[in-house]
């Protein structure tokens, strides 16, 4: 039995068909970026304020690139998906930073699309390659949502024990320094 796409993905796919080439690349990247942010938020310790301080607009992990790298480094996406996300990010940047009308048939963009590997079919046009790769990456994100559980915050530190350990280490360090001075 074929897998039924959720309505949100059907709407996304339908919207892409109506976009210009530039619009398609920008919408695909924005959608993947938002999905990665959501994935990270659902897997990190549940603290909205801290998550917003990292993932919110103009914050350390607010860029598509940073989210791709973090998702990879914490084991939510595999290396080949990490590479694929970055290719889509570069394609988005090629469109976004070009002052002239650009299409998927331009040499640079067609070449990047030719490097995409998350494809079910070969010989697709550059635009269809990008769209298909995006849908397979969305499947990777959905898999990670189900596969990995949320990180739990560790229990509070026993500050009395930590202070005792710190004092013991300081005493050991002072003793070692004293012994070193006596040898000289």
Quick overview of this protein structure:
The protein has 184 residues and is mostly helical. The protein contains 8 helices and no strands. The mean pLDDT is 87.
How would you describe this structure to a colleague?
The protein folds into two domains: 7-153, Nucleotidyltransferases  domain 2 (Four Helix Bundle (Hemerythrin (Met), subunit A)); 155-184. It is mostly helical. The protein has helices at residues 7-18, 21-43, 48-55, 64-73, 79-96, 107-115, 126-147, 159-183. The chain is built from eight helices and no strands.
Output the CATH topology of the largest domain: Four Helix Bundle (Hemerythrin (Met), subunit A)
Form type? elongated
Please tell me how large the radius of gyration is.
Answer: 24 Å
Largest sheet entry: none
The assigned CATH architecture of the largest domain is Up-down Bundle
SSE layout and pairing:
Elements: H1 7-18, H2 21-43, H3 48-55, H4 64-73, H5 79-96, H6 107-115, H7 126-147, H8 159-183
Helix pairs in contact: 2-4, 2-5, 2-7, 4-5, 5-6, 5-7, 6-7
Features:
184 residues, Four Helix Bundle (Hemerythrin (Met), subunit A), 69% helix, elongated
